[in-house]
Amino acid sequence: MPYSNALPLILTFSVGSLFVAWYLATWVLKRDTGTAAMREISNAIKEGAEAFLRRQNRTIGLLALVLAAVIFVLYAFVRAHHSFDPVPTALNLAFWTTLSFVLGAACSVFAGYVGMWISIRTNIRTASAARTSLNDALRTALRGGAVSGLLVVSMSLLGVGGLYFLVSRLTAVPPAQIPLLIVGYGFGASFVALFAQLGGGIYTKAADVGADLVGKVEAGIPEDDPRNPAVIADLVGDNVGDCAGRGADLFESTAAENIGAMILGATLATAAQRADMPFAAGIVGVMLFPLVARAFGLLASIVGIFLVKTREDQDPMQALNRGYYVTSALAIAGFFVATKWLLYNERLPDAWWKYFLCGIIGVLASIAFVFITQYYTEYRFRPVREIAEASQTGPATNAITGIAIGFECTLMPVIAISIAILSSYKIGLWAMPGGGLFGTAVATMGMLGTAAYILAMDTFGPITDNAGGIVEMSKQPEEVRKKTDRLDSVGNTTKALTKGYAIGSAALAAFLLFSAYLDELSNYGAKLESVNLAKPEVFVAGLLGAMLVFFFSGLAIKAVGRAATLVIQDVRAQFKERPGIMQGTEKPDYGRTVDIVTRGALKQMILPGLVAVGTPIAVGLVFKQMGVGAEAVAALLMVGTITGIVVATFLNNAGGAWDNAKKYIETGAYGGKGSATHKAAVVGDTIGDPFKDTAGPSLHVLIKLLATITLVLAPLFI
Predict the structure, then answer these.
(1) Domain residue limits at 641
(2) Which of 116, 333, 370, 453 fits a disulfide with 301 by CB distance 3.0 to 4.6 angstroms?
(3) Cα–Cα distance between 570 and 590 in angstroms, integer?
(4) pLDDT tens for residues 356-410?
């Protein structure tokens, strides 16, 4: 196949995947919507989720427009134009950087909104399907989730590929420098993802904590009991946090990493050409390789999604795992085709298959993260059972054991990341001189090859959780609730797995983007071979990077506490004002609680978001006056990334372990539901909620936001 077909193939696969997403959406929307009681509950969830997202997107849109204006002014009027800039004037550079930022932000908002739009319509159809068949309910939930997965990845490819096409047609910029003009796309996506994940995470956990502490612990009523005023807000939160928030998170992952890998590919191909060892596909072919590899991953995910089905007596997780393994195998096959096609080098004929090995390392790393996360968050294994056992002596020992497990669980992921980075780097060097960094980029692309399927499994979680709530609140027969409970249990596992996958991909991507930052500095005439932490200014910048991770996490967790306080006060007030609620003769005011938690979450997301965005900019501009701006930012990025990876792993897995320790006790262990052990586990789960669903996932975004900010603003720090 001619190398000139690479960009048309990327755009064709992206558009084709959008059509598949549209087909799946129409398939889901044709399913039965159940009884009138089920529809009433579903409509309340739908109204609450859409109202929250409309208000959140207005806030994010305003902040994004302000930042876009700041970027334009900095590039057009503050920074002097240089001869090594990719375009002839400062105004041109400001235009393309700002345009790509705005498009990245807009696409991220769109992808997150559509994913949530379909999930809040899939939940009732999954609940209705569970009345007749476990297999129908499973397929409905996964296909609803797949709309989000396919949309996010294909929109990312379409955005980066479309921008590349636009710049190549409208400017005379050399192909190798085009990624420097579109890095703003990744920054725009990261900016939106941070606020979407923060806002959604604060909302979902404030509602969850409020519902659990007053409902389960104080009032002694079960989960999803219609007498609890916070129950609708809790079900809304699953969608705005796990669907819209995670959708925006993985959208920015794919966008930023595609651009970073393109920068590294262009640098490698240019160096190879100068050394008289050119790739057969040329600079453009190597630069577009990451997008082609991801396009084949989309195709693999589509096949995996359509293959998922189960029997009534089978564990639904087996069906999802089977689809994941098929997706992984096909992604590897697609990688083989892409490397043979675009990375072949006549002077180094073995280079392509060595880079193929790097891609396999990335796929294996993603599988390793899935298994590690399962080990630390499923109650079949030691860590979760230790927390459950510790709950017998009260909330304090539950909390101590959970924190200890969280610290312990950082070992295996760090080893997996280290092996993946070192082995892919060494194989990249083995492939060709100076090819080590590109080897790590190829491994990152391998890890992201299954992203669409992983995101489908992630969105499956809140859909099945909502389905269980709808079945419980509409008083469906016990056998229906058993089916949705089975799916909900699997959904809790898939959500935990996605968090593990997200932090693993963030770790590999962070190294990729850090390397791209150094390459970008070189392109702008400020070559930085190393970061010297022995310089006091650079050491202080690194220290600020580590501090940012902890300070940001503290603000995010505190935000949940503040918003949850408002929910708790409202639920207690409703129980006091209306005694008929607990007697079942009067309905709670669900809308009042939804509105309270909406306003609280949006108010609380602003400060941590602004701290995350403002810190690297401030460090770069202040330390520039000391003559070490670019190096200081590199230190902040490097140390902040390392700290963020470890802290996010701790928060995600500790929170997941606390949650499943509670669920293990609810199966009947150590006294079961309502026992003192169970109440202690509920307290632990409440502590873990903002860990795993607010601060932890937001740190994934923070890690990549640091990298994309530095990529976009690197010319200002020189």
Answers:
(1) 3-717
(2) 453
(3) 10
(4) 999 999 989 988 888 888 889 888 889 999 999 999 999 999 999 999 999 999 9
